[in-house]
Amino acid sequence: MPGSKTHWFIGHQTHQWEVQLGRAVLLVAVSLSVGILGYHAIAGLGWVDAFLNAAMILGGMGPVDPLTGTGAKLFAGAYALFSGLVLVGVAGLLLAPVFHHVLREHGRERARLGSMRTGEVEGERLTEEP
């Protein structure tokens, strides 16, 4: 695209990287909100304690406050499993542009090497086939 900026480390379009980052941030924010509401409504924790527990689970550190009720324990287990999937999803969102760039460059290199083997340069044949 004319006039579009690229990142220095991946050479990918800036807009596409920003979109992926925005999606990842939105996914984490929604997941954190679900955890806060669940810990507050189901486990009966205050807002700050609910935030702390949700953030620690989402970050992979584990719960802070001991939970006593069966419903609270079931929610905490389900939220922990959900948080693991969110981690994989966010990693995929953030690494997809990098992998796309690597695979695209690998394909260009293979095409260049393949054209060198057949004697093509810039789409023109150097030798005629019999």
Name the descriptors.
130 residues, 3% strand, Helix Hairpins, mainly alpha, two-stranded antiparallel ribbon, single chain, 3 helices
Secondary structure layout plus pairing:
Blueprint: H1 14-41, H2 47-58, H3 70-118, E1 120-121, E2 124-125
Distance between the termini: 41 Å
**SSE order in H/E notation?**
HHHEE
Q: Major sheet, described briefly?
A: 2 strands, antiparallel
CATH domain class: Mainly Alpha
**What is the residue-mean pLDDT, rounded to a whole number?**
80
Helix content: 55-70%
Task: Explain this structure.
The structure is a single chain. With 130 residues, the chain is mostly helical. The chain has a single domain, classed as Orthogonal Bundle (Helix Hairpins). It has three helices and two strands; from the N terminus they run H-H-H-E-E. The protein has helices spanning 14-41, 47-58, 70-118, and strands at residues 120-121, 124-125. It has a two-stranded antiparallel ribbon with strand order 1-2. Strand 1 and strand 2 form a beta hairpin. The longest helix is centred in the C-terminal third of the chain and has 49 residues, at 70-118. The two termini are 41 Å apart. The model has no long low-confidence stretch (mean pLDDT 80).
